[in-house]
Specification:
- There is one protein chain.
- By secondary structure, the chain is an alpha/beta fold.
- The protein folds into two domains: 191 residues, 3-Layer(aba) Sandwich (Rossmann fold); 88 residues.
- It is built from twelve helices and 13 strands.
- Strands 3-2-1-4-5-6-11 form a seven-stranded parallel sheet, with helices on both faces. Strands 7-10 form a two-stranded parallel sheet.
- Helix 2 runs parallel beside helix 4 and helix 4 runs parallel beside helix 5.
- The relative contact order is 0.14.
- Bound molecules: NADP nicotinamide-adenine-dinucleotide phosphate.
Length: 312
């Protein structure tokens, strides 16, 4: 299958490229500013996808069978800092991709987020009412609606959870951020009552690729890992898995009630009901224990990890 992939240099997009190429797909990947190596792309283009004209020409030139949109301003804080740019990437880009997909009859797989939910009624089913608490989440809701309106049944929008995995720059995923902070001498202050159902980007990528050929599955869909865990527990499990010395990798347990202002924009429990995708796809959601075995140490942090490891 010929697949146009935006965000090919991101945590999810780079996994789609790597795994898609292994499966025999032809990946045309669009990156932004990242210039480092990327595996799996047949064609690599660097484009500013915030520019309104960028996408039309691309879709008409390559006429892909499927489009996977993994480009975004994916951090809530970055959206607040630059609302105009994040609106361009998070709403206008998927809208234009959906319009172009419809023009040529291509399948469109768009990525949304668990954050569309308010966090007080978990676990969330696909049809549950959304209640976004921050700008990023409101943009994701708007993108879901725009994609459905423009592309109808050609589109599947996958709401993803907090993501683990191995990113091209080594600084994007959950464990990469934790290791970066520990290596900088920070103590992680993590809540015991904020629940996330983390998924490895490779597992999500495989689900997105399978969805490209499953046109019977459309609309808003959920994909995540199997285990709802608190942010505190996630860090403890990672530290134990890597055998890091607690003195070098400190974690302090906090509670949402300790910082009500910050929690007003951060949902409490974003556990997801994975029906109907889990069971409909051949790929299976993974436990957190399995995900831990697929994590790599970013090269820039290897020396710190080696020094912080307890003896076996
Ligand atoms: N990461 C998570 O925990 C998480 C959780 C739930 C949902 N999601 C969603 O999943 C999707 C993928 O997330 P991710 O974590 O893979 O994101 P990411 O690692 O931040 O990657 C974002 C991608 O978008 C590209 N991009 C940003 N601005 C661009 C521009 N102006 N022109 C061209 N490309 C641009 C980046 O390119 P360069 O790096 O080359 O500039 C990069 O390839 C997003 O829709 C995100 O909202 C992510």
């Amino acid at each position: 299958m010929k697949i146009l992939l935006t965000g090919a240099s991101g945590l999810v997009g780079s996994a789609v490229a790597r795994i898609g190429a292994r499966q025999g797909h032809t990946l045309i990947g669009v990156t932004g500013r990242y210039t480092g190596p990327l595996a799996g792309l047949h064609t690599r283009l660097s484009l500013d996808l915030a520019s309104p004209g960028a996408i039309g020409d691309l879709v008409r030139t390559f006429r892909p069978d499927a489009i996977i949109n993994a480009a975004a301003i994916s951090e809530p804080a970055a959206c607040e800092l630059n609302p105009v740019l994040s609106e361009a990437l998070n709403i206008h880009l998927p809208t234009r991709l959906a319009e172009r997909a419809r023009e040529i009859g291509a399948r469109l797989i768009h990525l949304s987020s668990e954050q569309v939910f308010g966090g007080d009624h978990a676990p969330y089913c696909c049809g549950d009412p959304v209640a976004p608490l921050n700008l990023y989440a409101r943009q994701k809701v708007a993108s879901e609606q725009a994609v459905a309106a423009a592309a109808g049944d050609l589109a599947a929008t996958v709401r993803a959870p907090l993501l683990g995995g191995n990113s091209p720059g080594g600084r994007r995923s959950l464990h990469e951020r934790m290791l970066t902070d520990w290596a900088a001498g920070k103590t992680l202050r993590l809540s015991t009552d904020e629940i996330r159902q983390v998924c490895h980007a490779d597992n999500l990528a495989a689900a997105l690729l399978e969805l490209c050929s499953r046109r019977d599955l459309s609309g808003n869909l959920h994909w995540a890992g199997l285990d709802p865990l608190s942010r505190y527990e996630l860090a403890i499990r990672l530290r134990t898995h890597l055998r890091l010395d607690p003195a070098r990798a400190p974690i302090t347990a906090v509670h949402r009630a300790d910082d009500p202002a910050a929690c007003a924009t951060r949902p409490a429990d974003l556990s997801l009901d994975l029906a109907p995708l889990a069971g409909a796809l051949l790929i299976l959601p993974e436990s957190f224990a399995t995900q831990l075995t697929h994590l790599a140490i970013p090269p820039a942090l290897q020396a710190w990890v080696d020094a912080a490891r307890l003896p076996a």
